[in-house]
């Protein structure tokens, strides 16, 4: 079982009200030094079978036609080596 | 200017109706072989100043108290080396 991650973010030229709301809230909450926040979506797909070039091409097609609205969003597809990130903050 | 990415995903034991809706739609759209989909949020934070341990600790605190609902969500914090992913699908 392999995991492929598709990140979908608004294009840089598209206004991101969610991200702006987060950014404006941060100083009030005591977090300074953050100049920009963008908020997007992360899809974790569990594949049966190997993650070869054909599978990745299929997922890219899927992301383009279905997961992202490519008029306003960019996406990236990548294979996740393990389920854990390097600096995982596993909250209780 | 450095970029830190905070990924927020529902905990594995929490039902994810958004992800399930995506997963159920995929076979109808001609995409087979995907056994599970989870959908979460991705925050891209632009920091002024260096991304040292202190900054990362601060961001982890921020993610825990503000970006994620740690009752139902897990988060990971990581520094993004460059703005581009390795398999970036820059859609038109």
TrEMBL record, chains A, B:
What reaction does this enzyme carry out catalytically?
N(2)-formyl-N(1)-(5-phospho-beta-D-ribosyl)glycinamide + L-glutamine + ATP + H2O = 2-formamido-N(1)-(5-O-phospho-beta-D-ribosyl)acetamidine + L-glutamate + ADP + phosphate + H(+)
GO cellular component term, pick one: cytoplasm
Q: Point out the coiled-coil segments of this chain.
A: none
User: What is this enzyme's EC?
Assistant: 6.3.5.3
- What is its subcellular localisation? Cytoplasm
Which keywords does this Swiss-Prot/TrEMBL entry list?
ATP-binding, Cytoplasm, Ligase, Nucleotide-binding, Purine biosynthesis
Q: Which InterPro entries match?
A: PurS, PurS-like_sf
ATP-binding is among the record's keywords? yes
Question: Which terms does the UniProt entry file under GO BP?
Answer: 'de novo' IMP biosynthetic process
Task: Please report a single Pfam family linked to this protein.
Answer: PurS
Spell out the molecular function terms from Gene Ontology.
ATP binding; phosphoribosylformylglycinamidine synthase activity
Q: In which pathway does it act?
A: Purine metabolism; IMP biosynthesis via de novo pathway; 5-amino-1-(5-phospho-D-ribosyl)imidazole from N(2)-formyl-N(1)-(5-phospho-D-ribosyl)glycinamide: step 1/2
State its role: Part of the phosphoribosylformylglycinamidine synthase complex involved in the purines biosynthetic pathway. Catalyzes the ATP-dependent conversion of formylglycinamide ribonucleotide (FGAR) and glutamine to yield formylglycinamidine ribonucleotide (FGAM) and glutamate. The FGAM synthase complex is composed of three subunits. PurQ produces an ammonia molecule by converting glutamine to glutamate. PurL transfers the ammonia molecule to FGAR to form FGAM in an ATP-dependent manner.
NCBIfam families named among the record's database cross-references: phosphoribosylformylglycinamidine synthase subunit PurS, PRK05974.1
- Subunit structure and binding partners: Part of the FGAM synthase complex composed of 1 PurL, 1 PurQ and 2 PurS subunits.
Family according to the record: Belongs to the PurS family.
Name of the protein described by the UniProt record: Phosphoribosylformylglycinamidine synthase subunit PurS
Q: Which organism is it from?
A: Streptomyces lonarensis
